[in-house]
Amino acid sequence: MIAPPSSSSGNAAPNFAAAKPNYWKVAFRIFRWTTYAFALIAILMILHTAPPPPVVTSAQAAASAEHKIEQVEHAVTSGQPATLRMDESELNSYLASHLDISPNGSPNSSPGGASPADVEQVRSAVKDVKVQLIDDRVRAYVVFGFHGKDMTLQLEGKLGAADGYLRFEPVSGQIGSLPIPQSSLETAVRHMMESPENREKLRLPAEISGLKIENGEIVASYK
The pTM is what? Predict the structure, then answer.
């Protein structure tokens, strides 16, 4: 009769459980490095400055905008209703001549009654502003400095007036080449509009009864 082999003799059976790879650990490493890769791509997209829009400015357009504003001011002073209409070229030419925000420039005035310190802070951060008027929407292109690096912000939406305050309904936005999620964009704009610090800054002149973008023009109604 042959005796069964002793468990203590010969080579032990291989431990297949120990040799089995830890799939959870491998999956975690893949997820971690994928997250790093997405974060790096997002940073590169944010730092990638978007090219400026093809906005045309001219001295003639700036003069036309000034003339229209003078006509509206004269009508309001006389107690008559008036409507101001500016196309894209007139608006950008007017902004270029009145908002000196280049790094080497100095503000021509203190808009909205802001103090010189506030104006200097904005001027030092914002380096360029261009506005496109598209059908019934406005698209703003802003170049600003952030820790020595130029970055771009683009916002598109609808302008309006409600209860004497400027209203902006965002449609899309992006920082650099990175799109901003719609929910995040709406939340940020809502907080900005409703915050006590910005509330008074968004107050429109008492004479303005309406504001909108119509057929590629900005239209302001004065009562």
Answer: 0.67
